[in-house]
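User: Now give one protein:

AI:
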Amino acid sequence: MKYAKSEAKDYARKHLTGIWAAALTPFRDDLAIDEEGFRANLRHWVDDLKLGGLFISGKQAEYTALSLDERKRLMQISVEETAGKSGTIMSCSDQSFDTVVELGRYAQDIGADFIIVHAPVLFFTEKQDETVYGYYKALSERLDIGIAMWSHPDSGYLVTPETCARIADLPNIVGIKYSVPRPMYTELTRLAGDRIQVSTASEAEWLDNILELNWNLYLCSTPPYLLQSSVDQRMNEYTALAMRGEVERARAVSASLQPVRDALKRTRPPEKPQAHQKYWQELLGQAGGPVRFPQLQLTEAEKAATRAAFEACGLKVAARAAA
């Protein structure tokens, strides 16, 4: 642990900032984790793209297809490769509460900066507030590390801003990835922005959230390393411009990325988000590889369409990646 439990909120205010990306897990052809490729990706994201932090072993990483030992191994590698250069937030989400706690304690022990825990999937739809509050309260009591909440429609419900604000009073609740409509996260920013870092994963909304809500955290999905390369870092550029108050320049740089956003969106086949993003990584020179069952692989025709869109979208790549 890099801070005491009582210091978690202050530590997050200082260190849970900037652009944080959610890591995909590269696999080899035999579907074992490609540890060498993962290390190379981490070094690229930290050394070349200068990302503020990395979100490890989450839904983008196919955590439901990973064993407990594999999730811990990804966490360990991430701490090793980012030490002193970038932050880490470890996804400890699981339907088993005991597994969440075990992963959270492991993250504490290896020196991770924070953990993030998805609101539990619940099989009732009328009210969830007391259940969700009790869930995060129990985690806060059992763990010392800073904990970020995560609310997304795939829980079967959305945690209300009022309940999130109540949870924000817990001593080591430090942030939230709030994958909800903008009015909801705007309201939570008003209610609890002085106690936790509020963010959402939409890159398309990131610029407006800096300018209109004074956010300083993007938490987090894959655009930071899919829309950028070592020689084309327009997301980093428009972020820095916006945070310096250079609004028109920031908007112009962000708008220039629209062809890249469109190419990614247009070529992503239904039901194949990870497979598509991994192939885009490969086109950028990163390690991608196949996906694990039950995810579906891209067809050769889908790869060809993605490759054509990638080559025409205007994203610049380094010579080694282009080759």
In short: The two ends are 42 Å apart (CA to CA). DSSP finds 15 helices and eight strands in the chain.
